[in-house]
Amino acid sequence: LAKTTQPISMDSYEGQEVNITCSHNNIATNDYITWYQQFPSQGPRFIIQGYKTKVTNEVASLFIPADRKSSTLSLPRVSLSDTAVYSCLVGDWGGGSASKIIFGSGTRLSIRP
Amino acid sequence: GAVVSQHPSRVICKSGTSVKIECRSLDFQATTMFWYRQFPKQSLMLMATSNEGSKATYEQGVEKDKFLINHASLTLSTLTVTSAHPEDSSFYICSASPNRETNTEAFFGQGTRLTVV
After folding, report:
1. Would an 8 Å CB–CB cutoff place B10 in contact with chain A?
2. What percent of chain A has pLDDT over 90?
3. Would the pLDDT of A83 be above 90?
């Protein structure tokens, strides 16, 4: 299982762009990179998923270098409601592979006015 | 998007009783579901992998006789905390991925807050 490493916490201000980087040095060929957001007393919520290069959706962008040993979640113009824990997960969950979904510590992002 | 529903969202029970938590995939089938436990300000800890039609696979340190898992259909897995004690009080979360040939994200339930008094 590919282990992930993220900063424990980050602080930023409303309106800023926030970039959270995750290291996954032993990512496997079939693994995808997925980021989740979790608020207190709620289940994790899917943010974005990618395999390589750049992926963008309505809430975030995901940058993945060619070696895929790291990834960066980019949140544009954050607001107070973006205060949450962000977790990067690596795995292959398709094709009936049933790869375990293991959470690391995640990054506790705090947004200030 | 795909939805995973947990029930109940909150439960308070007396010490020594058993509590059943349901996890349903509402619009997809899932051969495999996962159960997690989360203590305050800690990350999700995988407890077990629930496999439809077969026995669950438990992580090291998780008592299979205490945390009974039944995956009776492709849309339902249940976790029963037997003879609950105050130390079992926690936030329990399930997840599931659709049975697809290509990679897909995992979907999580909203969680169940268990309080044992």
Report:
1. no
2. 79
3. yes
Q: What is the pLDDT of residue A3?
A: 85
Rounded Cα distance between B86 and B93, Å, is 18
State how far residue B83 is from chain A, nearest Cα, in angstroms: 24
Give SS3 for A95: coil
B95 and A101: CB-CB below 8 Å?
yes
Contact B100 A45 (CB under 8 A): no
Contacts of B43 in chain A (CB under 8 A): 85, 87, 103-106
> What are the DSSP calls for chain B, one per residue?
---EEEE-SEEEE-TT--EEEEEEESSS--SEEEEEEE-TTS--EEEEEEETTS--EEPTT--TTTEEEEEEETTEEEEEE-S--GGG-EEEEEEE----SS----EE---EEEEE-
**Is B58 an 8 Å CB contact of chain A?**
no
pLDDT in tens, B22-47: 999 998 888 889 999 999 989 999 99
Spatial strand order of the sheet with A9-13 comes to A9-13, A107-112, A84-91, A32-38, A45-50
Residue B43 to residue A41, Cβ atoms within 8 A? no
| Chain segment B3-19, per-residue pLDDT in tens | 999 999 999 999 999 99
